[in-house]
Putative gluconeogenesis factor
Amino acid sequence: MMVPKRNRRPKIVVLGGGTGLPVILKNLKAQSADITAIVTVADDGGSSGTIRDYVNVVPPGDIRNVLVSLSDLPRLQEEIFQYRFDSNDHFLAGHAIGNLIIAAITEMKGNVFEAIQLLAEMMRVDGQVYPASEEPLILHAEFEDGTRVSGESKIAHDRKTINRVYVTPTETNHDAKAARQVIDAILEADMVVLGPGSLFTSILPNLMIQDLGEAVVNTKAEVVYICNIMTQLGETENFSDADHIRVLHKHLGNQFIDTILVNTEHVPEDYMDKERYDEYLVQVTHDFEGLRNENCRVISADFLKLRDQGVFHDGEKVVEELLRLVFGAKN
């Protein structure tokens, strides 16, 4: 990796989806990084899934949250964009206004990639936001018992051990592809960050797009994985940090993760609201020997943030380590 000089904004590509991604992006933006966010398009649940069923667009939920995290809009306009209709409003129940806007502009332009760039300009986004693919994808899982299931929202349902996941376009017979801008951003980056987010349903759906996965393997950038703090129901039950890396390396057939960020701070007993955060189980265990066997540099520290009886990454601390890495302060 060519280390950027401190008078140049480091080019950092972040791949993923879910609630963890905007936290990292917001803190990278605060440190003036040159950010490209590449967002998962295989979500079929909630408002995103419903819109996807009625309008042939990529699911907009994660894209909406990423746009807001990088936006310079006034607070009120952000709140309007994020507003979700009450469940009593039967026609629009559960839909976020931003999801409807993304779907409308995509239909108007006939291309989700162009629609997101237009919306990013309108929202004064500092950085680039790209969908991992320009068409909606279906995420499939094959379990160790040989059974299969299709649909991101169904994968964790039976709590089976996942052998592998893969993606296919929803309506065509060709393989999923990433836009040229996505590939170029990865190959020209100083750092590529994976996560935090659900391993099988937020991180891997991006990497299973063949040309995108190949770009991550072949980039000269430092590839960093931000390991989840908690194991996840039906996905990573009983996982260690090394298990996360083994799964990533197995899927791409290459030991491509250079560095892993691991939280070592203990979550207090009975802190989490188990009903509100019912998909998160126990803390991810540590297997530092296993990580060394995967040729991973380990940065272990207190990355924990406790808030609203939930467990999160401290975005400021994570980004501090990422910038230390990208500027070559780590040996």
The CA atoms of residues 61 and 153 lie 14 Å apart. The longest strand covers residues 162-169. Residues 1-40+176-331 form a domain with the Rossmann fold fold (CATH 3.40.50.10680). The two ends are 13 Å apart (CA to CA).
